[in-house]
Design brief:
The protein has 117 residues and is mainly α. The longest helix has 21 residues. A two-stranded antiparallel sheet has the order 1-2. It contains four helices and two strands; from the N terminus they run H-H-H-H-E-E. Helix 1 packs antiparallel against helix 4. It has one domain: MazG-like (Helix Hairpins, Orthogonal Bundle).
């Protein structure tokens, strides 16, 4: 089922939930996270390999999308629902939007809060 609410984050989360439900693997109750986490780690590894190769931008994007979907799956497996996930994603977006060169600095490849001292 295609979702097009104009809210890409919500559409992705809902589409992922629908995908897992369609295959009868949407987590319910207490769940053994082992398989969910293993699947996520495999996709992260594939993204890293594609990025390190760097020759196929479509492949990198495809592997990144797989990471997004499997990360959402881990959230579902731990009982996080679509709305909670979307709320948290938008909180992160707002926090990142608020970061400036005055409040943060790039250090060792990571954007970190500036020392206030």
């Amino acid at each position: 089922m295609t979702h097009n609410t104009g809210d890409s984050l919500r559409d992705l989360a809902q589409s992922t939930q629908d995908f897992y439900e369609r295959f009868g693997v949407m987590p319910k109750g207490d769940v053994d996270l082992t398989g969910w986490i293993r699947n996520f780690q495999e996709e992260v590894h594939e993204l890293i390999e594609a990025a390190q190769d760097g020759t196929n931008k479509d492949h990198i994007a495809e592997e990144a999308a797989d990471v997004f979907v499997t990360a959402i799956g881990v959230c579902f497996a731990t009982g996080v629902d679509v709305e909670k996930l979307v709320q948290q994603m938008y909180k992160v977006v707002a926090k990142n939007d608020a970061k400036t060169h005055e409040t943060h600095v790039v250090s060792d490849g990571k954007i970190r809060r500036r020392n206030s001292g």
